[in-house]
## 1
Amino acid sequence: MSLSTFLMLLVALVLVQASCSQQEDEPCDDAGSREQDVPFLEVYRSSFCQPFLMTVDVYSEYPDEVSYIYKPACVAVQRCGGCCGDKGQFCAPVEMEMVTIELVKISPSIKESTMVKRDFLAHKQCECRPVSIS
């Protein structure tokens, strides 16, 4: 962590603690925040570029199978997201794996349903990379 980032965090924590001490009717916890508030460091850490559980549309992953109905139509897989702290960078996967998910595939034309397994790409590790200008 750079010195400037550390100083910004320190100033933010002091401001949070000061605002809590001014609120006499709402006691602060040890982290310096009111009970219903999410602590700054938790928000800050969870906003970094990292894998998050995201909903992926089955048809966007399998566009050739739009004549079928899948249940569920969306599945949850780990995908990269979050902030990089620089507008010249984006959050990208560096390690991925295939995850097999069981779905119900319905064929409306013959009114039949079967259990099928479909592979989805899951992101295991992410990093900030420069945005390429084209």
## 2
Amino acid sequence: MQGMFLTQKLIRLGRVLDRVRGSHHVLKHPQRKDVLTIPHPKKNLGNGLVIAICRQAEAQKRSCATQL
């Protein structure tokens, strides 16, 4: 899964794009202080990294990582 697709899915699930630093997109939760960093939007991310980001986002695996 490419980083941009994961970023778009997390935005649809309620995250807000806070900033972009180089090749990393930083998403934050609108009500809590936690942030997620998604690396390399045009490169494929490993399955373990996608699962870890979804787990950190507290999203269900079906809604977050459906293309694994």
## 3
Amino acid sequence: MSSPVDDSNTHLGPPRRDTDPSSDDDRLGNRSTNNDERPLTRENPPPPSGGNQWGVLFKAIRDGTSQLAEKLGRDPDGGDGLDSAWHPEDYGFQEDIEMREMLAQEELEEHAYASKLQSVLGSDANNLVKNLGLGETPSRTNSNDENLVGGVLWHLLSHQMGHNPEEIHDDGAVPTSTEDGLAPLPTDLRKRRKKKWYDEDPTNDKEGRKKMKEELLTQKIGSLLTRQRYMIQLCRALMKFGAPTHRLEEYMQMTAYRLRVQGQFMYIPGCMIISFDDPLTRTAEVKLVRTTHGLDLGRLGDIHNCYKNVLHGRLSPDEALPVMDDLLTRKSRIHQAWLLVLLSGLASVAVGPWAFSARPVDMPIIFVLGCLLGTLQYVLAPRSALYSNVFEVTVAMLTSFLARAFGSIYYSSGEPVFCFSALAESSIALILPGYSVLCSSLELQSHQIVAGSIRLVYTIIYSLFLGYGVTVGLTIYGLMDDNATKATSCPSRDTNIYGSVYVQEFVFVAVYCAFAAILNQAKWKQLPIMSFMGVAGYTTYYFTANHLDSRFGSTIGAFTIGLCANLYSRVWHGHAAAAIVPGMWTLVSSGLASSGSIISGLAYAEAVKNNTVSDSTMTQTQESLGGLALSMVQTALGITVGLFLSAMVVYPGGKRKGGLFNL
């Protein structure tokens, strides 16, 4: 399938003819040598006008700036913006559309259109019968044109039926003799004599030629299988390391077009359906690539570089396969369980002050609860497939139970020592479905209704699990302790507790983004831009939410992050797919904290304790269980609108050239 790609390093479309009438070569390829006969405007062009002078000046400044930026480390091949380059219809089967457009250009009448259509279809059927049904040699004009190469079945059938594409001349003529490529001589011109030993030519050995053909066939089929295997490995790596899901089909389509592999692709969460087509035999080979969708911000950039090098022809599929296998099999940069547990505790501490109003006295308890979450996530869950299915519920139950227990410790004056809500919410902030919200938002923005809807429903169900676990944990401790805390918020903020409210709000945001990025295997050089985008997005969210509403604040925050990511892609050619993730987590945590939906099950826990469950309390229960999911949906809608507006600002006309790993 053709696609509109225009890149400075390689052209991924069909070759273009030079139709410039001012070309120095004539139509036969002969270069003119008589310079005196050339027009005067070709020999001595007039001086550029004022407007052209400014254009030349601006071009020189732009080229010089680009060269300076590349020396400073900017990627010369382009970045990955947040725009949507292709429409979902462009990923599917296109031959019927291309045929209809071709016939429509001729402006035929209705009856003529029908006859022309039948003629085209009949011609295709006739070629298929000649090529395969009758065993005749296919009429191909150029055996080296990779666009006409079929699949594995085509090559095998061609070899079996005696088709030899290597003997087809450029003019379409096919030799009648399969032995030496020449037409047989007439009988009367043949001289019969005994064949001497010196007449034997090793190149005419039937066995040798048969072996040579088999080797050539093996080489062609091996090349095709290598390209297909590379595409399967690329798909698996992109899904495993957290590539933006709404662009997976485009990545695969661009790779197939560059490698001259006929294929169609359809992505649903957790699975990619790949159909390798053989247009010459009208057959297809379907592959299902299934893998758990993970997130590795460091290896995501490495996969992008490998994908880009193959797309530009700097790497062949044979050379890229070992690189891909190494990325898939090697261990993560931070794979020690104890270090991951420690980072989970530090990230939980960093999210507490700005998202849930945690005080310094709450931080040691938050650190312990965060390390408990990390132990269950990185130690116990990988060892037990059965426990991994109930990991989220058990973590929410255990942390909310312990948070209410610590929150029920009081001073002699009756004031609680620890803030219960900050402990309960900060301890599960790392397992909130922030990345799932981001992916579903981008999929819906790109009009991928199937994948976006499935992921959004999964996010809602996941949030219901967390809300249910929190409610159960609060209820169990409430039944055990009559003096269990009932406070749903922390005491009023003391602006001097951290020295300044801006330290509490913004400094800890940068620290949280850094810890969260390291926890998800980001490289050290990625941390500054990730922290900057997180702080920029939360700053606009903070001031907007204080004056308007938290849902509107999510939109403004997402717009800010998307604007920074698109500019980072367009100016510095960076990987916006990785840089945007920690900033989106800040918006999800802030949106849920402002709604108070995480601990909204406290009312039901008190009703169960006092044995006053009624229809009204059941309604409250439903609201408490659905409050977290509703808040998650509202946050997702705000992020979707914000990212869409940011893409419109940076790319008002779209980015149809964006064939490179766009987010």
